[in-house]
Recover the amino acids of this structure.
């Protein structure tokens, strides 16, 4: 009898504990905030639907509450915006880096950079001035190493060849020319340099793969647990840092010696490393300063190789499932190839109108439900519609809503029409209120010109060399992971053009 009474006491105590926890964790919404969408599961809120039925959840919420509303996921309120509110976020906030840092602890991974915000303005200049700004100079070297990579990882396909892990393979192919652009041909001639720069983004995957379950208790608790290995000395980029330092130090010494000997006759190298070396505070003999620039290089790499290879991979799957459009792209590629005799120039890339349109349509159909999260800092923000978002709130952007807006793209906005932009004077690099895959406002991605032009060059070479199709002849679906997507993981079939 006494044991039964004790058991009842424990049960009652546990129930009161749950009720108390629910009360203190219940979201509190201010009077002028966007409406919080009601939910039926205490504590969990909208988390389940956010993970497994994201598109349905967010679309339904927008239909009921308009373009600005809040949901409760992983123990916190998240505000979702779209259309005009989305562009207000781009225009008014420079806090994209803070939102990223909540998913990937940049301040610990890239410990020598002092955090993403410390180097983002430097890398924006590198991307704009050195990388995108000199694409016409880089075109021959990119072409050279792309062909080398295609021959190495795809090769001769006299007989149809099924190649798995398309994104991983094109990440390797993309890493080859980009490594040469980042650190120069001498350093990039080492396979370990190309591998390290190519693997960097994928090696950070485990840090974002753990669902933030502990955030139901407190956001900082989740961050503390996932960063424990980092705090005890493990870092997924430590090996890459050693590789790059060992390979670029001799290159730096060689260039500095050339400057000393040649003086005004010294001809600067065209790569990001040279740009970093010309910074007034660059000093490779000072370990702290050298490590700062190594981490800056890694952050630049993180946003360059993986995203470009993802764009190429998605476009390839979109082509492979639509042979009638692939044939049209081949005809355009063949005409340009004959005109330039196989040696593509920047002006030839600009002639790839159908391919550019195809890439833009592919980017429009990545099917990301939410993307480009921002964090409201340093104080609360009020939209033109009167809603106020408090300081510290995470704001996520309803990406698919604006990218498939009928007002912007017509009644067929939901359809995949690969050549809809051919005569629209709207290249894949152009950022506007309805095409926000590269962000918007002052912080629109400065490397998008390089990324799109390199993607066109890669796809041009692949289309010329191979006929590509899916295994089952159908259009492949993306892999959905909560509000985000990755390219299909099924093999593609490659066969030499006759």
């Amino acid at each position: 009898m006494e044991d039964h009474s004790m058991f009842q006491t424990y049960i009652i105590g546990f129930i009161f504990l749950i009720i108390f926890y629910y009360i203190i964790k219940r979201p509190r919404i201010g009077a002028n905030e966007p409406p919080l969408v009601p939910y039926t599961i205490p504590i969990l809120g909208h988390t389940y639907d956010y993970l497994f039925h994201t598109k349905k959840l967010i679309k339904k919420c927008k239909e009921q509450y308009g373009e600005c509303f809040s949901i409760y996921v992983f123990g916190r309120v998240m505000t979702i915006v779209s259309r005009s509110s989305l562009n207000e976020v781009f225009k008014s906030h420079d806090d994209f880096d803070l939102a990223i840092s909540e998913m990937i602890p940049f301040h610990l991974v890239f410990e020598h950079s002092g955090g993403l915000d410390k180097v983002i303005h430097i890398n924006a200049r590198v991307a704009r001035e050195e990388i995108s700004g000199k694409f016409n100079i880089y075109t021959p070297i990119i072409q050279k190493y792309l062909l080398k990579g295609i021959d190495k990882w795809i090769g001769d396909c006299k007989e149809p060849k099924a190649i798995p892990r398309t994104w991983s393979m094109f990440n390797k192919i993309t890493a080859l020319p980009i490594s040469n652009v980042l650190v120069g041909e001498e350093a990039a001639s080492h396979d370990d340099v190309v591998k390290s720069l190519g693997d960097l983004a994928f090696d950070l995957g485990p840090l974002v793969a753990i669902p933030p379950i502990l955030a139901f208790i407190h956001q900082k608790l989740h961050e503390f647990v996932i960063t424990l290995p980092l705090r005890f000395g493990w870092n997924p980029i430590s090996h890459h840092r050693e590789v790059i330092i060992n390979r670029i130090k001799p290159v730096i010494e060689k260039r500095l010696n050339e400057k000393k000997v040649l003086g005004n006759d010294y001809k600067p190298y065209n790569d990001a490393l040279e740009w970093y070396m010309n910074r007034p505070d660059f000093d490779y003999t000072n370990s702290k300063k050298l490590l700062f620039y190594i981490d800056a290089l890694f952050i630049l790499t993180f946003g360059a190789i993986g995203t470009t290879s993802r764009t190429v991979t998605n476009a390839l799957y979109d082509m492979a499932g639509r042979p009638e459009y692939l044939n049209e792209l081949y005809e355009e590629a063949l005409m340009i190839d004959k005109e330039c005799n196989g040696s593509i120039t920047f002006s030839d890339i600009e002639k790839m109108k159908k391919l550019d349109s195809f890439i833009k349509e592919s980017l429009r159909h990545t099917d990301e439900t939410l993307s480009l999260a921002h964090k409201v800092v340093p104080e609360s923000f009020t939209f033109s519609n009167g809603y106020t978002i408090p300081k510290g709130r995470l704001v996520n952007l309803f990406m698919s809503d604006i990218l498939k807006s009928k007002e912007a793209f017509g009644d067929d906005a939901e359809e995949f029409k690969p050549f809809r932009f051919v005569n629209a004077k709207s290249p894949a690099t152009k950022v506007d209120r309805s095409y926000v895959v590269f962000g918007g406002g002052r912080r629109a991605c400065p490397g998008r010109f390089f990324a799109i032009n390199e993607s066109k060059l890669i796809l041009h070479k692949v289309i010329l060399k191979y006929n590509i199709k899916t295994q089952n002849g159908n259009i492949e679906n993306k892999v959905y992971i909560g509000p985000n997507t990755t390219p299909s993981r099924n093999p593609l079939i490659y066969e030499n053009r006759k």
